[in-house]
Design brief:
Strand content: 25-35%
Helix content: 25-40%
Oligomer: single chain
Shape: globular
Radius of gyration: 26 Å
Number of helices: 12
Length: 475
């Protein structure tokens, strides 16, 4: 019998447990909770949060498109533009089931738009949204239908399936706010079973006789993989210690948590409490991204470089969106949320508000804050990962240069994170970093004395590429 390219030759089934490594927001499109929440989490009719299969497929398709265009078309099908150009059409061969999430904790996050000049909040631009908290899990299942076209491109199809499985096991991002650290997930205990329909036992196993024939279809396991980035990504990972205290306010838990100083003490109510989810203190990616963007804009102004460059790197500014609402694009800078390691603890600080005119205390102005402090000296307290996701080749050098200047600002304590920076909170001490780009890796410790001359020249070259943007403007 003659088999055409659409004839079904077999199946590949990928199964495992999808785990959230960061909060996930796939919005339902409307507010809730008496309109106090601007965006609610997408839920089933029974109220269970879930991840649509289309969201999973879209995120994985984007990754595969950057790594193997042919592999992407073999698994996800061809689009209309490709079909018109090449007079060839392939249907999608992959089906992903919705993932219903269990062990769910709904968290509420808030955000605010910042003025790039003053660094202060813009009036009427505060918003609150729900997210599924880190640690939620759900059964993952994806099915790939192997057809004649996959047999014709056997090597590319096998490579694409293996790459996709390794990406699932390593982790990927989906949903909203992925540039701010949301939506990081991975598939735990992933296995791939391949059914060859030319083998009768495989057909019986596929049709449901797993008890008798299942052992004939050996699963291929995929253990937890190292992070897989797109081939053009630039990754900067840095470690820091806390110089003093740190406070990113948790407004939802404020006044609900009490700290007892003695065994017979009922506890002190805290008005300003450090943000915490699960067993870790956290710095949201949105807080880091906002601080980085404000300082990057300041750097460009001082260097007399056109601020439009920042829009190309971090997405359009609010002013640009207002001027051209239809002109939008994703940020190339991806910031992960920071979860502080062991070695930090909260300490109570009782303060009083001062009248700015008289210099006296304000009646009823006494309040208690609970920032966190580093308890162990000489160790790394937090790690930060910044990724330039597939920057344009002609823009990569100056974008890395700006990223290095931002790292210097953080490492030397000139750029603080969190709230109450005016009284010295949020100052970091750089403890080393590693930069990976184009297959190269440059690593340095807190005092980069072990860099080779070639590495120093490369790092300086990135900064000089940024400075050339100033020269181009003034010519």
């Amino acid at each position: 019998m003659v088999m055409n390219e659409e004839s079904i030759k077999g199946k590949v089934v990928l199964k495992g447990t999808l785990v959230l490594e960061a909060p996930l927001l796939i919005g339902a499109g409307g507010g809730g909770a008496g309109e106090e929440i601007d965006t609610e989490v997408l839920k089933t009719k029974a109220g269970q949060p879930f991840i649509p299969g289309t969201s999973l497929a879209g995120a994985l398709r984007e990754f595969l498109a950057a790594e193997s265009a042919l592999g992407m078309r073999l698994l996800f099908g061809t689009d209309a533009a490709y079909e018109r150009r090449h007079k060839e059409a392939w249907q999608s061969s992959i089906h992903m089931e919705d993932v219903k999430l269990n062990e769910v904790e709904i968290v509420v996050r808030d955000g605010v738009s910042l003025d790039e000049i003053t660094g202060t909040a813009i009036e009427h631009h505060k918003f609150d949204y729900e997210a599924v908290g880190r640690g939620a899990k759900g059964e993952f299942c994806a099915e790939i239908t192997l057809r004649g076209v996959h047999e014709r491109h056997e090597t590319d199809a096998e490579y694409a399936i293996d790459l996709l499985a390794r990406k699932m096991a390593a982790g990927f991002s989906l949903g909203a706010h992925t540039a701010k650290g949301f939506g990081e997930v991975y598939v735990k205990d992933l296995t791939a079973r391949r059914y060859d329909f030319e083998k009768p036992d495989h057909v019986r196993a596929w049709l449901g006789s797993e008890g008798k024939y299942g052992n004939l279809v050996e699963p291929k396991p995929y253990g937890r993989q190292e992070k897989i980035y797109a081939k053009d990504d630039c990754v900067l990972e840095a470690k820091f210690a806390l110089q003093g205290s740190l406070l990113v306010r948790d407004y939802e838990r404020a006044m609900k948590v009490k700290f007892a100083g003695r065994a017979d003490d009922d506890g002190t109510s805290v008005q300003a409490l450090m943000l915490r989810e699960g067993d870790r203190w956290i710095i949201p990616g949105a807080s880091i991204k906002g601080a980085l963007r404000h300082r990057a804009a300041e750097i460009l102004r001082k260097l007399d470089i056109d601020g439009a460059l920042l829009d190309r790197m971090m997405g359009p500014s609010l002013a640009r969106i207002k001027a051209a609402p239809d002109e939008k694009w994703k940020s190339h800078l991806l910031v992960s949320e920071v979860r502080l390691e062991e070695g930090v603890a909260p300490k109570l600080q009782t303060r009083v508000r001062i009248d700015r005119f008289t210099g006296g205390k304000i009646d009823t102005g006494l309040f208690t804050a609970a920032p966190i402090w580093q308890t162990a000296e000489g160790r790394d307290t937090l790690s930060m990962r910044l990724v330039l996701h597939e920057p344009k080749k002609e823009e990569r050098a100056w974008q890395i240069g700006l990223l290095l200047l931002l790292l210097k600002e953080l490492s030397t304590g000139r750029l603080a994170l969190g709230g109450e920076k005016s009284i010295g909170r949020g100052v970091l001490i750089g403890r080393g970093a590693v930069l990976e780009y184009g297959g190269e890796k440059i690593l340095w410790d807190a005092t980069p004395g072990d860099l080779t001359d070639d590495q120093r020249q490369k790092l300086q070259g990135f900064v000089e590429a940024l400075l050339e943007k100033r020269e181009a403007k003034t010519l």
